[in-house]
Amino acid sequence: MCENSGVKTTATTTAPAAVAPETKTDAFTDPRLNREWTTLAAMIEINCRDRHGTTAAQCAECRELLDYARRRLERCRFGAEKPTCARCPVHCYQRTRREQVKAVMRYAGPRMVWQHPVMSLRHWLDGFRPTPKI
Ligand code: SF4
Ligand SMILES: [Zn+2]
């Protein structure tokens, strides 16, 4: 309590719980980038639901991965001309993040065919995009 102001205040010593930042889910205006984003988000969601037992939202670990991937996509040097990240000559992901995404794709990739067939087909077709010169 603050004795000088005459106003009762309550000091709290409890540290706030660590919460992963809210994932930005806005659509990209460019269709190519948006396709990449929705595909990645769907794969992470499948992985999280099946392997981490989540139902409504991703666990903190997967939200962090999604946030990271979102930032990479926003800053992708190839923009709308980007290849799939698997065929990228730059590979801007940190090594550990890259391993995480590869593990997600190994698990969720085959399941995407049944759960999101159109998205899956379009991602497969994106794999034939030319690799940009650097
Ligand atoms: S890995 Fe390549 S294609 Fe993927 S976001 Fe990074 S720079 Fe762009
Ligand atoms: Zn998860």
Secondary structure elements and their pairing?
Elements: H1 31-52, H2 60-74, H3 95-115, H4 117-126
Helix pairs in contact: 1-2, 1-3, 1-4, 3-4
Iron/sulfur cluster is lined by residues 72-73, 76-78, 82-83, 85, 88, 90-93.
How would you summarize what this structure contains?
With 134 residues, the protein is mainly α. The protein contains four helices and no strands. Bound molecules: iron/sulfur cluster and zinc ion.
Structure overview:
The chain has one domain. About 50% of the residues lie in helices and about 0% in strands. The chain has four helices and no strands. Iron/sulfur cluster binds near residues 76, 77 and 85.
In one word, what is the shape? Answer: globular
Largest sheet: none
- Strand-residue proportion: under 5%
- Bound compounds: iron/sulfur cluster, zinc ion
Number of helices: 4
Total domains: 1
Report the end-to-end length measured between terminal Cα atoms: 62 Å
Instruction: List how many beta strands DSSP finds.
Output: 0
The secondary-structure element order is HHHH
**How is the quaternary structure best described?**
single chain
Computed Rg = 20 Å
Average pLDDT works out at 85
The helicity comes to: 40-55%
Q: Give start-end ranges of low-pLDDT stretches.
A: 1-19
| Classification by helices and strands | mainly alpha
